[in-house]
Amino acid sequence: MKNNQSGQSTIEFIFCFVFAVSFILLVFNTSLNYVSGYVAHYATFMASRVYLTQSSNQNTWGPGNTITIAETKSREAFKNYSLGVFGIKEDGFSVSETGRRAELTADEYLTVGVFTKFEKKMDLVGQIAGQSRLDLITESYLGREPSRGVCASRVCKAITGEDECSENMDITLFDDGC
Fold this sequence. Notes:
By secondary structure, this protein is mainly alpha-helical. It has a 3-stranded antiparallel beta sheet. It has 2 domains: 10-145; 146-178, no CATH class. The chain is 43% helix and 11% strand. The protein is rod-shaped, with a radius of gyration of 27 Å. The model has no long low-confidence stretch (mean pLDDT 77). Helix 1 runs antiparallel to helix 2 (66-79).
């Protein structure tokens, strides 16, 4: 009986080709995940900077206050980056809850900022890593300083004992960072 090996190289080529293409797609998808993560992190960082620097010189914490305006401007800055191209939804963007409170402790100031949660597929084909998805979070907690109105209110309280300074008081407020 003759041992016929014709077609053996074709089968080996098919197996190697499938493995190579799967590996290339896995590397390609991983690099896309990295890029989308970096872009999402940059957008979150820039939105956090907008949130932390926005001030309207108010010391109130109701509707239309500094925090609400800062959150709105921050959300607009985040939307400017069009992360939908990378499959990142805008509804994953959020402001930390401690940033919405009027009085914060020194430790809580460090956790004020924004964060974004999003999901990405582990691989494009779904055959290497299955249909598993990555739950990713990018955070930017830069520490929000109190608004100038809140600082002025605190300085007035420290000098006069009252929450608000009036025009008839002979006081010059100088604040070096609240």
